[in-house]
Design goal:
Elements lengths: L6 E4 L5 H12 L3 E6 L3 H13 L4 E5 L5 H15 L4 E4 L14 H29 L2 E6 L3 H4 L5 H21 L4 E8 L5 H4 L3 H8 L10 H12 L10 E4 L6
Parallel strand pairs: 1-2, 1-4, 2-3, 4-5, 5-6, 6-7
The protein binds NADP nicotinamide-adenine-dinucleotide phosphate (NAP).
Length: 247
């Protein structure tokens, strides 16, 4: 665990992978800032669950793709907990479609939520972590950002961008005691993948050497490792959690 604040900010924590990360970090002793965009009921239910584990929580509604809302999230987190130890940039969306038919809006929205939001939160958290001379930033990318995927040009571009952002930030912030890493999930059972057509899901399953879909807990385990003491000498890596999908 990095020194300083015990506060971990998780964006898009109301559901899916973000929810799993929030629970796992709480189990590791972190107080959790739960960010969500629209659904307050699952976020409140998660906060109750984490508080029952003896950790503190702060719920912050914010669209992190908006620079000012991301600033409000980070400022509120730092004010409530006296700093930020861990920032997990998890919020993400898909707007799949073939390039020949992809609208400008679907391209822009995916880039804004998946890539710009990570920049926004890093931009606002960095001065706080620099002052602490400690911090862990963990960005959730995707194997699709490494391999590309037909029908997901916008999503793959955003996730490849997250990898470039991660490596640049890692180089820039290393001397300040801040590590920056990425976790690249493969196919994880959440609302996002449930939205795929059945035939597409079956096809993806065939590409996973370990033969099963991943869980939010599988991804959360990697995030906890990168946030914890065993990862203090690791920065700028992309850790695949994909059952071997992108070998
Ligand atoms: P999900 O079940 O659809 O959940 C997405 C979460 O992000 C929700 O909590 C949602 O909040 C939040 N969110 C969306 N836009 C936001 C915004 N502008 N500001 C703040 N929060 C926002 O997705 P998931 O499957 O857990 O995915 C989580 C991350 O893992 C994403 O970055 C995704 O790209 C990545 N990933 C997922 C998979 C997979 O197989 N599932 C694979 C690789 C990578 P609301 O409900 O309030 O809108």
């Amino acid at each position: 665990m990095s020194s300083g604040s015990r506060c971990a900010v998780v964006t898009g924590a109301s559901r899916g992978i973000g929810r799993g990360i929030a629970l796992a970090l709480a189990a590791q002793g972190w107080d959790i800032v739960i960010n969500y965009r629209s659904q307050s009921a699952p976020a409140q239910e998660l906060a109750q669950q984490i508080e029952a584990m003896g950790r503190k929580t702060l719920l912050v509604q914010a669209d992190v793709s908006r620079f000012d809302e991301a600033k409000a999230l980070i400022d509120q987190a730092a004010a409530a907990f006296g700093g930020i130890g861990v920032l997990v940039n998890n919020a993400g969306i898909t707007r799949d479609g073939l390039l020949a038919r992809m609208s400008e809006e679907d391209y822009d929205q995916v880039l804004d939520v998946n890539l710009k939001s990570a920049f926004n939160c890093i931009r606002h958290a960095t001065p706080i972590m620099m002052k602490q001379r400690a911090g862990r930033i963990i960005n959730i990318t995707s194997v699709v950002g490494i391999t590309g995927n037909a029908g997901q040009a916008n999503y793959a571009a955003s996730k490849a961008g997250v990898i470039g952002l991660t490596k640049s930030a890692a180089r820039e912030l290393a001397r300040r005691g801040i590590t920056v890493n990425a976790v690249a999930p493969g196919y994880i059972a959440t609302d996002m993948t449930q939205a795929m057509p059945e035939a597409a899901r079956e096809k993806v399953m065939e590409t996973i050497p370990l033969g099963r879909a991943g869980t939010a807990e599988d991804v959360a385990g990697a995030v906890c490792f990168l946030a914890g003491p065993a990862a203090s000498y690791i920065t700028g890596v992309v850790l695949r959690v994909d059952g071997g999908m992108a070998i």
